[in-house]
């Protein structure tokens, strides 16, 4: 087993044992393909996204956890949020520049739920139309500018 | 003769020249070469910045110096053998495995400790503690200045 596989198995174990509130994983599908996880997220109770269900796709490269995973929203409910593009890409610094190998699937999910929770007005990023037309399929290839820490 | 370091390209020697030839630094530095993913050469990849990886022969002079300095700084950080006491923490936050007695650890100035291989791999990309994000080199430089 490579160190990436070992670490992912470890995370899977922990997530099964103590799943954080509103985060659900399909263990069967992960056992079939360890490098791509689909995680079900629920909007937090006290947020604008209460009762909404979302899906996140995680893709892990063979240098995980030294390299951050690719993380994006998939499915037919992409949250309407100033940092989430309509193609599912998320502008969140811990997914690229501020990644640390001590972060995990759980902590990324919790950061995303908290990012959604602090939103006060549901709207798309101002450059959504242009970005979605011109971006790469891999959100990690985007040079993000993290200009706003408030939401 | 007598160079026991295996050089993968003839440019490695430029690391030894230091500042004496300033003209070398004025080479036009075009755009970085395209990224090629070659799993077979993975062990030789260097990370001049966290999101940039290149084999040694494609590094600019500036990047080679940066990496050499980083290797030097890493070697100054204390290491230790895990003896089962919980003072140094019980788990490596990078591989998420418990420390086993006898394993090699490296202790950062913020007192977080990791398996030596795990943290050295990370510090070749970023000089921050994965757990508290404390910059490692700032603390090291203060140590140098006060001692």
Automatic annotation (TrEMBL), chain A:
Residues forming coiled coils: none
SUPFAM superfamilies from the UniProt entry: UBC-like
InterPro entries: Ub_conjugating_enzyme, UBC, UBQ-conjugating_enzyme/RWD
Catalytic activity: S-ubiquitinyl-[E1 ubiquitin-activating enzyme]-L-cysteine + [acceptor protein]-N-terminal-amino acid = [E1 ubiquitin-activating enzyme]-L-cysteine + N-terminal-ubiquitinyl-[acceptor protein]; S-ubiquitinyl-[E1 ubiquitin-activating enzyme]-L-cysteine + [E2 ubiquitin-conjugating enzyme]-L-cysteine = [E1 ubiquitin-activating enzyme]-L-cysteine + S-ubiquitinyl-[E2 ubiquitin-conjugating enzyme]-L-cysteine
Pfam hit, one: UQ_con
Keywords linked to the UniProt accession: Transferase, Ubl conjugation pathway
GO molecular function, one term: ubiquitin conjugating enzyme activity
Class of the enzyme per the UniProt entry, highest EC level: transferase
Stretches assigned to the UBC core domain: 3-151
UniProt-listed Enzyme Commission number(s): 2.3.2.23, 2.3.2.25
SMART domains: UBCc (SM00212)
BP GO annotations: protein ubiquitination
The protein's name: N-terminal E2 ubiquitin-conjugating enzyme
Automatic annotation (TrEMBL), chain B:
SUPFAM superfamilies per the UniProt record, alphabetical: RING/U-box
GO terms under biological process: ubiquitin-dependent protein catabolic process
Keyword 4Fe-4S: no
Disordered: region residues: 19-41
GO MF term (any one): zinc ion binding
Record-linked Pfam families: zf-RING_2 (PF13639)
Keywords of the record: Metal-binding, Zinc, Zinc-finger
Cellular-component GO terms for this entry: ubiquitin ligase complex
Superkingdom, taxonomy of origin: Eukaryota
Classification via PROSITE patterns: ZF_RING_2 (PS50089)
Domain RING-type: 92-132
Protein name: RING-type domain-containing protein
Source organism per UniProt: Dreissena polymorpha
């Amino acid at each position: 087993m490579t160190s990436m596989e070992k670490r992912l198995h470890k995370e899977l174990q922990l997530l099964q044992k103590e799943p954080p509130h509103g985060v659900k994983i399909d263990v069967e599908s992960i056992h079939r393909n360890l490098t791509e996880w689909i995680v079900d997220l629920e909007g937090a109770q006290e947020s604008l996204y209460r009762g909404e269900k979302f899906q996140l796709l995680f893709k892990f490269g063979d240098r995980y956890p030294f390299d951050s995973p690719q993380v994006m929203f998939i499915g037919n409910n992409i949250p309407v949020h100033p940092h989430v593009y309509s193609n599912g890409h998320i502008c969140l610094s811990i997914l690229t520049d501020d990644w640390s190998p001590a972060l995990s699937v759980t902590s990324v999910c919790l950061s995303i739920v908290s990012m959604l929770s602090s939103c006060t007005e549901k709207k798309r990023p101002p450059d959504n139309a242009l970005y979605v037309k011109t971006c790469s399929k891999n959100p990690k290839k985007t040079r993000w500018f993290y200009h706003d820490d408030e939401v | 003769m007598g160079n026991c370091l295996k050089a993968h390209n003839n440019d490695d020697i430029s690391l030894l020249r230091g500042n004496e030839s300033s003209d070398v630094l004025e080479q036009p530095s075009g755009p970085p070469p395209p990224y090629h993913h070659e799993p077979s050469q993975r062990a030789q990849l260097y990370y001049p910045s966290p999101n940039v990886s290149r084999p040694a022969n494609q590094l600019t002079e500036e990047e080679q110096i940066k990496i050499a300095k980083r290797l030097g700084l890493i070697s100054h950080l204390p290491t230790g053998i895990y003896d089962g006491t919980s003072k140094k923490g019980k788990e490596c936050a990078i591989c998420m495995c418990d420390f086993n007695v006898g394993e090699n650890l490296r202790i950062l100035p913020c007192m977080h400790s990791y398996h030596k291989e795990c943290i050295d791999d990370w510090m070749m990309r970023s000089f921050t503690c994965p757990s508290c994000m404390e910059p490692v080199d700032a603390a090291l430089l203060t140590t140098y200045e006060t001692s």
